[in-house]
Amino acid sequence: MNRNRDNSVERHLSLSRRQFLKGLGACLALPSLGQFAVSSASAKGASATVPIRMAFVYVPNGTIPSAWWPSGDGGADFNLSKTLEPLAPVKQQLSVISGLADKSAEAGMDGAGDHARAGGTFLTGVRIKKTAGADLRAGVSIDQAVASKIGHLTRFPSLELTCDNVRKSGNCDSGYSCAYGYNLSWRSPTQPLTPEPNPRLLFERLFGTGNAEERIANLKRREAEEKSILDFVLDDARRLEKNLDGRDRAKLDQYLTSVREVEQRIERAEKLGKLPNPAMETPRGIPSDFREHVGLMFDMLLLAFQTDSTRVATLMLASEGSNKTFPDLGITEGHHNLSHHENSADKIEKIQQIDEWYVTQFAKFLQKLDAAKDADGSSLLKNSLIVYGSGNADGNAHTHTNLPILLAGSGGGKLRPGRYLKPQSTPLSNLFLTMSDCVGADLESHGDSTGRLSV
């Protein structure tokens, strides 16, 4: 055999490999691939029934219990309290639930740090490790447990939102990492999912940038670019594959698998139909006014549910232990400082006003959900399950039993709202299991659950 010819072939293959691998790197680095590999509500092969949406809205520092709980005998016979009065227009789609507890948030041998424990265990039902370092330990949150079952049916498996700062490190509460108090959603016991605080970035993530016409043009351009790149890489890879040695062939096969996955996800996205394109401009960014910020994030959540971009979401209105002031209420003291009221009538009154302020913003969101029509002609609120609550019950005493919990919506008629329910000393995780059943997640257990809650 001609040795010079062999060397020439080897040089040619080596050059081809280098060009090919370099080409792969450029393709893998394209950010548009991740944006395009998404799906939507109308997926072929998905359930033909109207989807059920699930969200968890968190408020910090507990409440004033005496102003929170309704009066009446329970069931359908109850009157909304002063704090809950803003919810009167959607009362028939509301379940007020007392007696729910988050035992994982109690001090035990860990001492101080109730705010971190309240936030860090609210959706997991699992005790967190007391550390301010990188060695975090929590649990999988219910939103992620559900998303792992149904997230493939939508463009985004889940959305994590906040109206507060984003923090994943540092000491925020008596030796507990800030990650616990600032992140509701946990993909694994060691991995909190960073929530998005900027409504502009959220909108661009969901629908693209610019006005409606610009978004259509940008989408078409991304589609054309992504398809041509994938086609080119696949052709080049198949041509080279037969000339590679075992190690390179294994590397190539691994890459081809990832390319095929992207290709399949693109095909699935195409089957799902066009990307939703709301008739509104992209938001400017984070408003300086807190009321406007909260309202805008609720509107983004509404859009995500209306377009079925996701069916699972969390929204932290403020981090646990938040010391925000409320100047529009004439309250210049911080929320957390006021929550340690020590039975001061003046501080209790101010906390009640803050509690009512948060409920009012939530009520506005629910009324918009109720006014929005779903594919079956009923309201979007009916086809949703929206939890509102805090991992602290009494902010002054730092208790974690009898949590202030609301559940809005009926899960498409699977539950019976319009009632005041009074289970006794029941894990909050039991409610989450019931909700997971309604969305078809089929979870055997979650956190410290002991069974399902009848709602």
Give the gist of this structure.
This protein has 455 residues and is α/β, with parallel strands linked by helices. Helix content is 40%, strand content 12%. Helix 1 packs antiparallel against helix 8 (212-241) and helix 7 (199-207) packs parallel to helix 10.
Helix coverage percent: 40-55%
Rg, please? 25 Å
Instruction: Identify the overall geometry.
Output: globular
On the 0-100 scale, what is the average pLDDT? 83
CA distance, first residue to last residue: 81 Å
Taken in chain order, the helices and strands follow as: HHEHEEEEHHEEEHEEHHHHEHHEEEEH
Notes on the structure:
It contains 13 helices and 15 strands. The protein has 455 residues and is of the alpha/beta class. The strands form 5 sheets. It has a 7-stranded mixed sheet with strand order 6-11-1-12-13-4-14, with helices on both faces. It has a two-stranded antiparallel ribbon with strand order 2-3. A hairpin with a 2-residue loop joins strand 2 and strand 3. The longest helix is centred in the middle third of the chain and has 30 residues, at 212-241. The termini are far apart. Residues 7-48 have low confidence and may be disordered.
